[in-house]
Each structure stands twice: as C-alpha cells, then as structure tokens.
Protein: TetR/AcrR family transcriptional regulator
Amino acid sequence: MTTPSTSRRGGAVSGTAPAAGSRAARRESTRRKLFEAAVTLIAEQGFSATTVDEIAERAGVAKGTVYYNFTSKNVLFEELLRDGIELLAASLRRAADEVTARGGTHIDAVDAMIRAGLEFIAGAPSLTQLYVAELWRTNRSWRATLRSVRGRAMAVVESVLRDAVDAGELSEEIDVPLTSSALIGMVLVAALDWQSFQPHRTVDDVHASLSRLLQGRIGGTATPPPAATPPAAAPRAPRPARRSRSPRTTGHTASA
Structure:
C-alpha cells in the first residue's frame, strides 16, 4: 500500500499522473456545472439578461471560476453550443454504427438516429431550444462556431444517406444535403413540440410516428395515398344521363 509520504511526493506512477488526472476531472466537472447553469438561465431569461454572477451562483462556484474556465460570457455560451452539438453528433454516429454493425439497412440506421436525436433532446430540451433560436440569428460572434458544429452533425446524417444511395436503398436523385437538413429539422421541431405541448407522449410513441414518416416518404415503402386518383373522373360519369333527358321528345312522351 502507498504510504502517505510517497503520496505527497508524487511520482511517475503513483503521484503525478493521478493528480493531473484528478485536476482534469475536476475541471471537466466544473465546466459541466457551468454549462448546465448557463443553458438553464439563458433558456429562462435570454442571453443578454443573464449575468456571469447568476451563472456562478446557479453553478455553486465563485465568479472567478467562470472567468478561469471561460474568458467571457460569450465564450462560455459559444463553448456550450459547441459541446452540446458535438455530443449530439456523437450520439447520432453511435446509433447508426450500432445498427449497421448488426446488419441493419442504412434506412434502419437513419431511423436509429431519429430515435437517438429524440432521446438526446428529451435529456437536454433547454440546449435544443437555444440551438434552434440561434440558427435564426446572424449577428452573433459565435456564428462561425455554430455553423461549424452544425456541419459536424449534418455530416453524420449525410454520410448514412450517401451509403443508402450507394447501396440502392435510396434513389440517386435524392438531394442528400437538403434531406439531411430536413431530417434534423424534423427531429428538432417534433421534439420541441412534444416536450412543450404533448409531454404525456413517450419517446417510443413519438419515434414510432416519425419512423412511419421516414419509411413512407423517404424509404418509398408506403402505399400510394387515395389522392392519387384523378379527381375529375367522378363528375364526368353522369353526363350521358343528362343528355337522355332531351327536350326533343314529344309532348305526350314528356307528360307521361
């Protein structure tokens, strides 16, 4: 067993490395607390109205700790967005890889990413709310960072869709970038609506609905809807009957 004196002196094996690892773990824990505090406060009252003092108080740390980890509130928020979207991208990639490793189709992998996205958003609704709001703002200092991390999440979906095209599961005519954006947007908006207005629904229920949409519209497996029947065919059928009641008949026949 290591003696107290050896523990204090440190060393290549039993001292320095664990201490460095411990410091890194503590700093990561502190950053997580600050992220959680910031995303909650900013979602509640807006970015401009949220102060560093409030973030520090909510996180249970000193104000100086915020500046030790992030040089400003802007940097904190920028890193918050980067961290959150990268976690989402990693979650999507992991879900797709697990399906394909089991021999599933690439459409199955897309479906798994939808499920992973819903679960991620359910666990981080405030982050999702902020991300969606920031997509519409073009004057923020972190706009370039947001575009970059969005690109990482998009790239994951795009790669799976391209694999599906290569495998013949999807048409070569599909617009991969736009379809990827539509899929991510569908999950974001559906999840926010679910969390805000339909909280009684389960993730299984919401996923099942989006899955049917995916398989029917993108995968091309749905039965053609009844609207495909030409609507003008029905009103034309009675015309012969109207012509049979011609005034050319005799008065005697008409009165009968």
